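[agent] plan:
  1. take the single chain provided in the ticket
  2. run structure prediction with default settings
  3. attach structure tokens to the ticket
  4. add a short note for the reviewer (M.T.)
[agent] executing step 1
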Amino acid sequence: MAPHVRPENVLKRAEELLAVEQSGDALNLLHEIITSKRTRNTPITSLEPIMLRFVELCVQLRKGKLAKEGLYTYKNVAQNTSVGSIEVVLKRFIDLSKDKVTEAQAQADRITLDSIDDLEASETPESIMLSTVSTEQSKDRTDRAVVTPWLKFLWEAYRTVLEILRNNARLEIMYQAIAIQAFQFCLKYSRKTEFRRLCELLRNHLQSASKNTSQVHAINLNDPDTLQRHLDTRFAQLNAADELDLWQEAFRSVEDIHTLLTISKRPPKPAMMANYYEKLTKIFLVSDNYLFHAAAASRYYSLRMQAKNITAADATKSASIVLLSALAIPVINTSRFRSAIFDVDESKHKNVRLSGLLGLPKAPTRASLLKDALAKGILTRVSPEIRDLYTILEVDFHPLSICRKISPIMTEIFKDDGLKRYIEPLHQVILTRLFQQLSQVYDAVKLDFVIKLVTFPAPFEVSSTTIEKFIMNGCKKGDLAIRVDHAANSITFESDVYATAKGATDGVVQLQPTPTEIVRTELSRLGKTLFATVNLVDAEYISSRAATKDAAIKRAVVGVEEEHKAALLRKNIIEDRAKEAETILQKREEDESKKRALRQQQEQLAEQKRLAEEMRKRELDRIKREQDAIQEQEKRKLADEIISTGIKLDLESIESMDTHKLREVQIEQTEKKNKDMTERLRITAKRVDHLERAYRKVEIPLLEKDYEKQKETDRLLHAERRKAQLEASRAQFEEKVLLKKRLRRMLADYEEFTERLLRQ
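[agent] step 2 finished; step 3 output follows
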């Protein structure tokens, strides 16, 4: 490209190419000037219109790679001087891409409607033949041909813009806005694969931002506002994952949010945390982790009850969900069995990790969640059927009627869409309670008797296969000690008094101690009995104990003052050390903040100096370019003026001449032109003088004749006017004489009236 070509001329040339339908050449021309090194010195006000036209052509021709290269170059040029211009160009790029997708959808709908010739015909022969070799509908094929390319382009546009805006504090607000728009794109068009890639992209950007904190304009995650914007984006990501049913991505989003919350120094908003725990309840429920689902529901309930606008119905429903989710936690673990050591280690690590997400110091248990629910007074707020269910499962002891009592409650729970999801895990809890309570009453029972006890109305039936599978799983986990005898069609509960169960009766109301418990506690009971007997029978033992007690009390009284003083001294020492440590820490933080502030000030001064130097250089270059352009313009103008006078100039001679030489040529031609004009005017004036004298010689006789004729015409006209004036004067005189005569008759009355007025 020639050195003297300006951005305005390039834009004009591109418009001329577009006018003759050469869009590709126009795009290449704009791309060439945008990626040129000389563009760095071009003013942003001149470059922005070129960029807007460039992105329009890129979208129109679906050239994503060219758009990405041009936008990266423009960002590097404008990020130090005009951030707003970058936002305008990128927003225009995204808006145009979205408009193209909308137009493609409308076009696909029109194609689908136009292809239907007969509205009454259900299928055409072509559609029947096509359906035999393809499962796609006509609209699906149309969308894939028309809409899908533009959807792909819009997705690439979002990725490109996010890559351009990442890790830049000046462009952070727009980065978050584009990320939220990308989530809405995935929701609107149900793009699950693109949503996963988008989440991974944002996660990589965040990791890169946390590592590259020393770069210019790097994102500072310690800034509360910046961290809050990242939290808002992650919550939007979590909500989108929830709507798309991508629970793995939802869980990873929860982990991202928890990481940001641990960094944040500002306490999160209650509404934000309520949304956090609500999504966790859904994630744990989908993953069949009923323990942590109940824990998340409890946390969500605590935040929900802090709201001022909660109604009694909402409070009852939330309390019912919390208590029912805790009751539905299986007593027996239903996960697939693996080696004991591996299962315990992995389970412990997983529980610690999930407890951290919920903000719990340790992993919850079923008993702790029920205890916490009762401590919150949830039992008074729940619906009656949930309260009855708690009483049946956790308080009463009724192995022969437990299922019969729970059946109507299951029916009521099934009617509520928010509670019926707990019916399946409740079956496991009911069976566990049934076998644990039966083991305290019976040594062996018939299998048919157990099946008869476990009778629920439709659709809650439990088959014998399910019961047997449950027994085998409980025995494998060590929670049940039952043998199934298929020959006798019976089940036998463990009766070995020396066997150690895993805790099959934990949390169950017991009617009487089991033989195992009797043997296990026999020595402790014997010791307690002997101790009580000695206290009652041996007087010396009793007196020695009393003396020992008195001596201990005396020693305690003597040493209590010293211990008190020592405790106060230790307290003072600890407080002094704490104050000293706090002072040292505060001083260290102040020193670090001063160093950081000084370093930032030095960096800002260096950056300002660099920007000022670049600005000065750009200003000098701009002034020089403007001077050259003005001289070139004056040179062209003088050349055009000279050429307009009729003088032919060679283009090579024009390029070799400067403005002074052209001005001398112009002055010379002007003087020559003026001299020729003066000579022509002299000759013309002489010719006009002779012609005028001839005109006057011929005109004199004609003027005399005209004068005589005019005198005669004036005399006749004067006579007519004089006659008319005399007649008018005569008529006026006569009218006035008549008026005098009429008024004279009134004169006597007038005089009499005047005298009467004077006498009065």
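[agent] step 4 note for reviewer: Residues 531-644 form one domain.
[agent] ticket updated
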